Structure formats: structure tokens, C-alpha cells
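Input sequence (75 aa), recorded before submission:
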Amino acid sequence: MAIVATPVASDLVLVMDAGLDEFGRQVTRKRQYGNLKNSANDEDVFEAAEGIISLHESACLAVQRVNTVELTEEG
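Predicted structure, C-alpha cell format:
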């Protein structure tokens, strides 16, 4: 049985620094931007992320791309 993965969605997630909590642990906030083209290459997504990051006052700790696929049986 073969399984086919069909791209459904792609999102950009920025993990932003939100300071420290009362115990001195780092707090983060995720900012998610959806509706990326599934065909967009990673370099273009990263360039878009850099543009968005430049508009924020807090530091960006990570740039993530989340791809969602639908799994179906080939048949």
C-alpha cells in the first residue's frame, strides 16, 4: 500500500523573545503567518521573515516553516 502526501498548507512561524518570567526563565511568543505558497522556496520564505522581523521591537529567536500535508492511499 503506497501513501501519497499532498501539500495542503504552509505557514511561517516566528518565535519571538518576550523577556523573562518571575523565575528568570525565558518567555517566548509565536507569531504565525499563513497562506504561504506551497511552491515557495525556503530562501524566499526566510527573506520574507527577515522583513517581518525588522518591524518588531523584540528579538526573533527562531524562524520556522510548518508544512501541512494530507495523506491518502494510492489506489
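Checked by second reader. DSSP finds one helix and three strands in the chain.
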